[in-house]
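ok, trying the design again with the full structure, not the truncated one.
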């Protein structure tokens, strides 16, 4: 197997006394589609946020394409590595690891096109005419080019989320993180966003998706990770984890989703 695009070793995250992530280890190969499940508060968002350094890991190592992010400090021990990060290095990482949020996070005072162009112009220093062309191409891809001049407030949630996906894609990240991208949408809008994510999955981009859409996870992911007590409690193929979970808490979690089958 080739080197993983992401390697997480001994990742811990504490908020004061709240020890949220407890020694997470994970290798992600290029092109993998990973679905992450877990109860509310189990640390799914925190894990994604640590991966693009919106949250700083308390201890542990994250490697991106074979290169460790940050440098171990003197306080590190063999079992607990504490890193220091430079601002420049972290902004490099954030270019390579894109994120799509539950609440879209578009700038309300900027048009759809300006939202998608923003990172290209200010972070990647792409010339405005080229940034515009690249942004329009991404909007086309998510079926939103016709709304390029609209403001986010005039769009449905599903449309806003598709714009947010175009914005993330415009940066051409090596890894794309999705944090419950359909959770705040009305049920009839969920499908249009999942269709866009499915198309991306088929292109071979590496993606980690936190979701409660189990059917989608089942068809989309090559691996499912169930997070509980700050660790991956059960992992495997979608069939193993979603259809034939071996461990009690995974079964209980999944039962909640299937209680009202008809
Ligand atoms: N910035 C923060 N400061 C303090 N505590 C935080 C912070 N972010 C998250 N937490 C705490 O960390 C724990 C995990 O939160 P997180 O948002 O990662 O859970 P989650 O699995 O994404 O939940 P949900 O399914 O509700 O989105 C919670 O106890 C939460 O209160
Ligand atoms: Mg969350």
């Amino acid at each position: 197997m080739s080197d993983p695009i992401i390697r997480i070793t001994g990742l811990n995250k504490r908020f004061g006394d709240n020890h949220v992530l407890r020694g997470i280890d994970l290798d992600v190969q290029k092109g993998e589609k990973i679905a992450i499940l877990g109860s509310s508060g189990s640390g799914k968002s925190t894990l994604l946020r640590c991966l693009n350094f919106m949250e700083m890991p308390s201890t542990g190592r994250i490697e991106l394409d074979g290169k460790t992010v940050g440098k171990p400090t003197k306080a590190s021990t063999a079992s607990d590595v504490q890193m220091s990060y430079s601002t420049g290095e972290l902004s490099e990482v954030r270019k390579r690891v894109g994120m799509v949020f539950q609440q879209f996070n578009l700038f309300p005072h900027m048009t759809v096109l300006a939202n998608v162009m923003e990172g290209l112009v200010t972070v990647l220093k792409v010339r405005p005419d080229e940034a515009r062309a690249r942004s329009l191409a991404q909007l086309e891809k998510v079926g939103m080019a016709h709304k390029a001049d609209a403001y986010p407030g005039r769009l449905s949630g599903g449309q806003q989320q598709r714009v947010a996906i175009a914005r993330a894609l415009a940066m051409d990240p090596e890894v794309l993180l999705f944090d419950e991208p359909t959770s705040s949408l009305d049920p009839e809008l969920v499908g249009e966003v999942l269709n866009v994510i499915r198309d991306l999955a088929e292109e071979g981009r590496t993606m980690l998706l936190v979701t409660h859409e189990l059917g989608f996870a089942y068809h989309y992911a090559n691996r499912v990770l169930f997070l509980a007590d700050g660790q991956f409690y059960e992992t495997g193929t979608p069939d193993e984890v979603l259809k034939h979970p071996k461990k009690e808490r995974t079964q209980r979690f999944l039962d909640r989703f299937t209680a009202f089958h008809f």
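Keeping the full-length input from now on. The pocket of adenosine-5'-triphosphate (ligand 1) is lined by residues 15, 18, 20, 38, 40-46 (CB under 6 Å).
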